[in-house]
Amino acid sequence: LEVIRGVEPRVADAIAAELTDQREMLKLIASENYASPAVLLAMGNWLSDKYAEGTVGRRFYAGCRNVDTVEALAAEHARNVFGAAHAYAQPHSGIDANLVAFWAVLSQRVETPGLARAGVRQVNDLTEQDWAQLRAEFGNQRMLGMSLDAGGHLTHGFRPNISGKMFDQRSYGTDPQTGLLDYEALRATAREFRPLIIVAGYSAYPRLVNFRIMREIADEVGATLMVDMAHFAGLVAGKVLTGDFDPVPHANIVTTTTHKSLRGPRGGMVLCDDALAEHVDRGCPMVLGGPLPHVMAAKAVALAEAARPEFGSYAQAVVDNARALAEGLLTRGAKLVTGGTDNHLVLIDVSGYGLTGRQAEAALLDSGIVTNRNSVPQDPNGAWYTSGIRIGTPALTTRGLGAAEMDEIAGLIDTVLSGTTAAAAPKGGLSKAHHVLDAAVADQVAKRASDL
Ligand code: PLP
């Protein structure tokens, strides 16, 4: 830090302050974690300075042997940990991994029949006329993804994201009574809509997804099954999600982030079957710039950690802790979407406390508990104010907290939310954004949060 302070002290201060926040507050954001020192150090070094467009052994720059080593190791560990045929470690983030996957599926669908018809093997041999014909044949592609308010992600075909502009999108949701995925409704939509890609995976669904059924539906309608396991990759790596609930044997293509439950550096990754491998490997330069070699080094280190037996115990503890947290909240009368959890996250419907998600998020932050507001299914408050709070256990489990602490944290959350009310907006009238919480309650909870 002193080296940084000598150049720009405000950056050094922000780093130090972030460390204090992460130590003193309870980090309950379901997509965050604490990477190990080995992962952090693998990122902060000279590999950062190297350009290496291309793939292992086929670069557009000279002097890439050390980048080749780390990229090959990241891919090898990923194949081993997840049992995948092929792994691509370059995506800079989860969004990038999804973009690579979309283009890989599109190019596979466009090129394979096109190449065969044109009697050529190389895509570069296609003429402009071939391309025009292929675009006419395969244009206006359709994607079927989980709706945002049921827990899907922006990149699964929603308007503010490029996926919603590239694809003609339709959503599947959850059963309004149970909050659970309704596979038969999904099957009916798929039969009628006939998408090119079915996207499974979520940011805020607290239950398991049966990927065997998803693949069956995709096969029935001739779609490619893509699973975005960004949130639960750590549970797959740790062998907590197996059989029908492990996406890798069932999906044609799987994308992930590496920084959530997987506990690696910020970044993305794509796993796929052999048929898609060559298309995925064109991610750079198709949609990615030069890879981040230092981050690929950290991915290799994180995946080596995930291959150890301790990681399996960690992943199981993440799920056990989420269940304990859910039970602690239910005992205190909280309303949970789907009534509980089977994975690493819990979605509290804070309308039961008379609050919007925005008010609850702010009151919890005042009390040293970091969460994020989130839509609940059919949310009357929309995606900005929301009616939910999403919490998850990957980070606190890394810090070694267990079931007893989860019950206590459920009590702290309930104390804060029960003690919070909606406040007037500056222009008058009750606001969806403002809240009142007694300062003594906030201080008392924050003190306990910091001790934990
Ligand atoms: N996919 C899912 C399911 C996610 O939850 C997220 C992140 O929140 C992403 C993709 C995007 O990841 P990133 O922020 O690394 O682009």
Automatic annotation (TrEMBL):
Pathway: Amino-acid biosynthesis; glycine biosynthesis; glycine from L-serine: step 1/1; One-carbon metabolism; tetrahydrofolate interconversion. Its EC number is 2.1.2.1. Keywords: Amino-acid biosynthesis, Cytoplasm, One-carbon metabolism, Pyridoxal phosphate, Transferase. GO terms for cellular component: cytosol. GO terms for molecular function: glycine hydroxymethyltransferase activity; pyridoxal phosphate binding. The modification N6-(pyridoxal phosphate)lysine is found at K260. SUPFAM superfamilies: PLP-dependent transferases. GO terms for biological process: glycine biosynthetic process from serine; tetrahydrofolate interconversion. It comes from the Bacteria. Residues 7-109, 141-413 form the Serine hydroxymethyltransferase-like domain. It is found in: Cytoplasm. It catalyses: (6R)-5,10-methylene-5,6,7,8-tetrahydrofolate + glycine + H2O = (6S)-5,6,7,8-tetrahydrofolate + L-serine. NCBIfam families: PRK00011.1, PRK13580.1. Homodimer. This is Serine hydroxymethyltransferase. It comes from Actinacidiphila bryophytorum.
